[in-house]
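JOB MANIFEST
job_type = single_chain_structure
chain_count = 1
residues = 360
[input]
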Amino acid sequence: MAIYALTDEQLVPVSATSFSAENIHERRHIQQLLKANISVLDDSLMVIAEEFGDWIDSSRRIDLLCIDTDANLVVVELKRTEDGGHMELQALRYAAMVSVMTFEELVETHARYRNPAQPDHDGAQMAILDFLGWASPDEDQFGQDTRIILASANFSKELTTAVLWLRDRDIDIRCVRLQPYRLANGPVLLDVQQLIPLPETASFQTQIGVKRQAERKQRSERHEIRIEFWQQLLQLAAHQTNLHAGRTPSKDNWMSAPAGVRGFSLVYTIRQQDSQVHLWIEDNEAAFRQFESEKAQIEQEFGHTLIWKREEGQKGTLIGALIEGGYRSDRDEWPRIQRDLIDAMVRMEQVLKPRLARLG
């Protein structure tokens, strides 16, 4: 979007320029200006230090180390390049390193920043407490999160893709574009725009982020439950059949084993409230019809009515038995469900394997 200068008669385009063309340097000019005017990036920030590098075995330095009004640490990384380089990777390293900082270390850092020759600990602490609105230090409330602000002349697609991915995983990282303009025979103007997240959508994106976080937590919980269910089932099954021996419990809701003939598998499936064992027949309609012709005899030998499933557009068919109860059932019910699954699997193997052998 172009910027125009207004005159009495016309709109005069203001030409975009670059920091390098204007001989504006990253550390000497941009960093110093933003340090003195940090609210340009975020009006909730206080600068604690610049060129902060109190690391163990590291010479890396944070351009500007800040805190916000919620007592979170904020890493500000600056670049004057047109694509931002790899600043998101640098900032992530810095955020990880600084995340363990204590309130006392923050005060010492700010004291040295204010007066390197004669650090004033009490004055630095008073300035920080006044900014936070605290009467005294609160270590429990300090540094609960570490935020990242990337400020650059522009950002590459690779960088913004990485930032969006990180934000989707609850990392508070932002991109602020610093675009210089040159007035004809006049001063350099600086257009400061937050690109990610867009200010007008920040609240909505936060709500979406909370929803996604809840969904990820639910998926993770579901996966952990399934792994535990499979572990118990495999331990019980080992005493009755070696069909699924050597299988590793996984987060999936199914577990298969070869049935002895290519294209046929014996499968456990667990759902939230019910479960199933079945023979999966991959893309072999003739075999399914052959089994179906013996349906009455197969069900009599199995001892129960079976599911005979054939759907249009599906590349396979199945013959299965439904089991009451699933991985969301009460834990006290799990042993019974697992025994029923194993018993059904053993009977299904006994009934169908000889018929599979005759199919060749």
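[summary]
The first helix runs from residue 26 to 36.
The first strand starts at residue 3 and ends at 6.
exit_status = 0
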